[in-house]
Design a protein that fits this description.
By secondary structure, the protein is α/β, with parallel strands linked by helices. The chain has one domain: Alpha/Beta hydrolase fold, catalytic domain (Rossmann fold). The protein is about 40% helix and about 20% strand. It is built from nine helices and nine strands. Strand 1 and strand 2 form a beta hairpin.
Length: about 270
């Protein structure tokens, strides 16, 4: 990735985080999800840059960021806070739109709850979902451990590239357990946010294999959004016929939905 004049680097907690900036229009900060890099989001970033001044970055241990000695939700949130602080020194014309995918959506909600004046609105893509039942418990460890081990080969294949992920399978497992705890209390965070919020959610976040576990997770995902909208009826929701990788597989549709004017409060779009 060629460094541009508006690109910058954040040094925080022993980690180096590269930040890219480009485009025109309203400021927009794109916060990636777990196992996703700026390189993975290249199509979405380029589409958003047509209408927004887009700021993007890699999470610690992802892409062009350096490895870290811990991968916890609080560590990722602290990095995000440091990046936003540095961005605040760069004379933005207005508070940015925060767009977060998966883990990035949770980071955006937690940041906005603590820094309401630093955010114009939030667009949350398949994350920050107050699901009624945990997706991942100690009982699920064997299943998720097998999935994490399956990622090891993928991690090795991308090592040394802009798409690399430096987490170990155990890091992945521990972080997912951590995220479940965070999401169990996320409704309290939403209650502290007075900015517009839009949700862009996948209809089959766990895939459409037809397996009972995947079907249950998909139902639980939708139930979480329904729970959120009952609690916060001003939140609008769009559903995309895709799985959890929708920011990569459906980039044009996601870019369009991010750019759309807000729907009336509580209205769910198909």
């Amino acid at each position: 990735m060629t460094k541009k004049p508006d690109d910058f680097t954040v040094h925080h907690d022993g980690v180096t985080i590269p930040v890219s900036r480009g485009g025109r229009g309203r400021p927009l900060v794109l916060c990636p999800g777990l196992l996703t890099t700026q390189a993975d989001l290249y199509e979405l970033i380029e589409l958003l840059r047509r209408d927004y001044d887009v700021v993007a970055f890699d999470l610690r241990g992802h892409g062009l960021s350096s490895p870290a000695d811990r991968y916890t939700f609080e560590a990722f949130l602290s990095d995000f806070d440091a990046m936003m602080t540095e961005l605040g020194h760069r004379d933005l014309p207005s508070a940015p739109v925060l767009v977060g995918h998966s883990l990035g959506a949770d980071l955006a909600v937690h940041y906005a709850a603590e820094h309401p004046d630093a955010v114009a609105e939030l667009v949350l893509v398949d994350g920050a979902n107050p699901v009624p039942e945990p997706f991942f418990t100690e009982d699920d460890l064997p299943e998720f451990r097998a999935m994490a081990e399956g990622l090891r080969h993928e991690f090795e294949q991308t090592r040394g590239t802009a798409r690399q992920v430096l987490l170990t399978p155990q890091d992945f497992l521990d972080l997912n357990l951590d995220i479940e705890v965070v999401r169990s209390g996320i409704l309290d965070r939403y209650r502290k946010i007075d900015r517009p919020i839009r949700m862009i959610m996948s209809t089959t976040m766990a895939g459409n294999s037809g397996e009972e576990g995947a079907q249950w997770r998909n139902r639980n995902w939708r139930a979480g959004v329904e729970r959120l909208v009952r609690e916060r009826p001003h939140i609008s929701t769009s559903w995309v016929d895709a799985d959890h990788r929708l920011v990569v597989t459906h980039a044009p549709e996601i870019a369009r939905l991010i750019g759309d004017a807000r729907s009336p409060a509580g209205q769910a779009a198909s």
